[in-house]
Design goal:
Layout lengths: L33 H12 L5 E4 L2 E4 L26 H4 L9 H12 L4 H8 L3 H9 L7 H11 L3 H5 L8 H22 L1 H5 L5 H16 L3 H15 L9 H21 L2 H9 L8 H14 L3 H9 L7 H13 L3 H14 L3 H18 L2 H9 L6 H17 L3 H14 L1 H5 L2 H13 L4 H11 L3
Antiparallel strand pairs: 1-2
Helix pairs in contact: 3-5, 4-6, 8-11, 8-12, 10-11, 10-12, 11-12, 12-13, 12-14, 13-14, 14-15, 14-16, 15-16, 16-17, 16-18, 17-18, 18-19, 19-20, 20-21, 20-23, 21-23, 23-24
Length: 459
């Protein structure tokens, strides 16, 4: 039975598909016409950014159209099909409002239909701290706080920091394209295409390119490091053990580890884990892979798993693994275990560079305890760090100085960090958090802070 309509009125469109479906399609009992369903699916499939969530972990891919991120101009696609834009980028910074993580915290708590008391109970954090973060009177500068908030909200920490960030400027776009190249490489690897086309690379050439990527990354030049990744992936090829090619296998494993480290720095932790999974180290390559795995798990908000993975190897832990592992214990509130590992590392120190690394690790462990005076004291002894690590330590000291209400010195440290390793600093979520904090607390240095915010894409 059809509904009556006024004389002369046009017939209403059918509610369901009428007639046989077109060839190559299946009937769709949708309240929307079949062509509309097809158009919607096409827009959805060709959306330039997909976000797939498995449990608490988010697998985020980059654009399948362009490796350089979103295309400028008006985007005709529906909102749910557009690249996920960080609210850190799209919202205007408000000096009187909460810092980015606090803003996202309030949004997610509302989505989860939780009260402050509910979240405090689920995260183990004080209600006052959560309320202060959401109101903007406090900010997040410790890993265990970020991890606890993410755990209480059943989130990946990246949902609170909005990583990976939308590219801002040509350099960031170049680095951002690394994810596109790696995903394409892994897709071809899993499809078996690389095994068919790959020609064994000269080990000397592979070693030279690998050293160039590591040197640029350590030196604070992410752009140069990222520019070499496509060629490095081409030389790595499939991780197949050829008879008598132990050196080549070790280099290919180290290459995947270097790529994973770069992806971790730019915020693609899930993709970094996929790349790191391809590294199958021999005994001499175990340390590189284990160090990166512990650091990656720390960034993913999983310090307990990092400890379990490292201890579960059953082998004596080398110096390089002890340092990030001590931070994992500090994030878990296990101060005695953290100190024990740092003391063991000090006994293994072979030179001044390693001594600086231990001092830096002590500074990060002290920050987790909230001992900000100790952070500054340990940082003074870490004067032989590579540029990338020095920038991270400067961000930490800037936050410690801000906690001690020494805002002018905090601005100086943050500006120095950016000059030492520009993109390392701009892509550091705690640095971006600090930019928002200092914008309202260091008014005499508003031009400096504003410049950093603009280069981060926060204005």
């Amino acid at each position: 039975m059809t509904s009556p309509r006024a004389p002369g009125a046009q017939p209403s469109p059918p509610m369901y598909w009428e007639g046989p479906p077109p060839r190559g399609t299946t009937p769709c009992r949708s309240r929307v016409g079949g062509p509309k369903v097809a158009a919607w699916l096409t827009r959805f499939i060709h959306a330039s950014t997909w976000h797939i969530r498995f449990g608490w972990f988010r697998v985020a891919t980059v654009s399948s159209r362009s490796p350089c991120g979103p295309v400028e101009g008006t985007d005709p696609r529906p909102a749910f099909c557009r690249p996920r834009m960080s609210t850190l980028v799209t919202q205007e910074m408000n000096g009187a409002g909460p810092a980015p993580i606090g803003r996202h915290l309030a949004e997610w708590r509302t989505r989860r239909n939780l009260t402050v008391a509910d979240l405090a109970r689920r995260s183990g954090l004080p209600e006052q701290l959560i309320a202060s973060l959401e109101s903007g009177t406090d900010w997040v500068d410790r890993r265990h706080v970020l991890n606890s908030l993410a755990t209480g909200l059943r989130l990946d920490p990246a949902e609170l920091t909005s990583q990976p960030y939308t590219p801002c400027g040509a350099d960031h776009a170049t680095v951002h394209a690394t994810a596109w190249h790696v995903r394409r490489h892994l897709t071809r690897l899993f499809a078996g295409e690389l095994a068919q086309d790959h020609v064994r690379a000269d080990t000397e050439q592979l070693a030279g390119l690998l050293e160039a990527v590591r040197t640029a990354d350590d030196g604070g030049d992410l752009v140069t490091a990222a520019s070499e990744v496509p060629r490095l992936l081409e030389l790595i090829g499939p991780l197949v053990q050829h008879p008598g090619d132990n050196e080549g296998a070790a280099l290919r494993s180290a290459g995947y580890t270097a790529v994973a480290r770069l992806l971790r720095r730019i915020g693609y932790r899930d993709l970094a884990w996929s790349a790191l999974h391809q590294a199958r180290p021999a005994e001499e390559g175990f340390t590189l892979v284990m160090v990166e795995e512990v650091r990656l798990l720390l960034d993913m908000g999983q310090p307990a798993i990092a400890v379990t993975r490292a201890v579960g190897t059953g082998a004596a832990l080398p110096f390089e693994v002890l340092l990030p592992l001590s931070l994992a214990h500090a994030c878990l509130g296990q101060e005695a275990q953290s100190e024990r590992l740092l003391e063991a590392a000090e006994e293994m120190v072979p030179g001044p560079e390693e001594a600086s690394a231990v001092a830096s690790a002590r500074a990060f462990a002290a920050a987790e305890r909230g001992a900000f005076d100790q952070v500054l004291g340990h940082a003074l002894d870490a004067d032989r760090l590579p540029a990338s690590d020095r920038a991270g330590l400067l961000v930490l000291t800037a936050s410690a100085r801000a906690r001690l209400h020494r805002f002018a010195e905090a601005v100086t440290d943050l500006a120095t960090a950016e000059s030492v390793a520009p993109l390392h600093t701009r892509l550091n979520p705690l640095a971006r958090e600090l930019v928002s904090v200092l914008s309202s607390r260091a008014e005499n240095h508003a031009d400096v802070v504003g410049g950093i915010a603009a280069r981060c894409g926060m204005t």
